[in-house]
Specification:
Layout (H helix, E strand, L loop, with lengths): L4 H7 L7 E3 L10 E5 L5 E5 L8 E3 L1 H13 L3
Antiparallel strand pairs: 1-2, 2-3, 3-4
Length: 74
């Protein structure tokens, strides 16, 4: 990735991404799906609204997000 990581992430075509249901998603149908991207980046989308733009995180952003969830900060 270049120095402009946000643009690099937006440039990735997600039409062939392999999405998986997040392990923390419950059984009530309100699911979050995650796709692995190059360089450890991740894309996240709402499984009930797949046409909506996915959120994209660099590997570092994803690690910080996970840490915040795990520690209860988020």
């Amino acid at each position: 990735m270049s120095n402009n990581r946000a643009s690099d992430l937006r440039a990735i075509d997600l039409t062939t991404a392999v999405w998986r249901k997040a392990s923390a998603s419950g059984g009530e149908g309100n699911c979050v799906e995650v796709a692995e991207l190059s360089g450890g980046a991740k894309a996240v989308r709402d499984s009930k609204n797949q046409g909506r733009e996915a959120l994209r995180f660099t590997a570092g952003e994803w690690a910080a997000f996970r840490e915040g969830v795990i520690t209860g900060e988020l």
